Amino acid sequence: xxxxxxxLTFAAFILLDYVVSRRRAPQAVAVAPDxxxxxxxxxxxGYQLPEALHYHRGHTWARAVDPDTVVVGLDDFARRLxxxxxxxRTPAVGDxxxxxxxxxxxxxxxxxxxxxxxxxxEVLAVNPELARSPGLATDExxxxxxxxxxxxxxxxxxxxxxxxxxxARRWTExxxxxxxxxxxALSGSVLQDGGEPVADFARHLPAEDWKRLVREFLLT
Length: 220
Description:
This protein is α+β, with helices and mostly antiparallel strands. It is 38% helix and 22% strand. The strands form three sheets. The protein has a six-stranded antiparallel beta sheet with strand order 3-4-5-11-10-7. Strands 6-8-9 form a three-stranded antiparallel beta sheet. Strands 1-2 form a two-stranded antiparallel sheet. The N and C termini lie far apart (80 Å).
């Protein structure tokens, strides 16, 4: 009788644990973060620099959704340097990308800029929204304006070559300072009082000066 009571008690605990687990499961799914949502913005030297991302020195970013999927886009510094995108050139699904090599491009009013891939890997998908609204790439670079979805081949090694945290913040501060110095040397008309770049300053620069800035800062 004692043995039977122990068995029934043990079975009751198992049943109770199962019921509790079933009730908790939907709540866990409901609060799971949206992999495509823009990360929380953080401002560094006047630029948005979300801490959840890893940054290439060519001003593109990588966000690991899972071990086999990384989302890629351009950062706030790049989108201001390039200006509002009128079209986006992307690789085809299945193409292979190399870290630091040209991956995609954006164009505005007769000017075009290439940007590098932050990781090695195979292109899994291209943001379909960009065909209809290319401006998303520069209007919402960390959210709906993502460019590519990539299957990484050396994710851990690639991420070690990218910047995050304190290093990313210092790099952004240095890039801002370097850009301000270049703009001061090129033309005072692209700087507001106090040294702030005017909105869409790329339009105010001669084409050759703009190209030099793009090559220098986007590493193409």
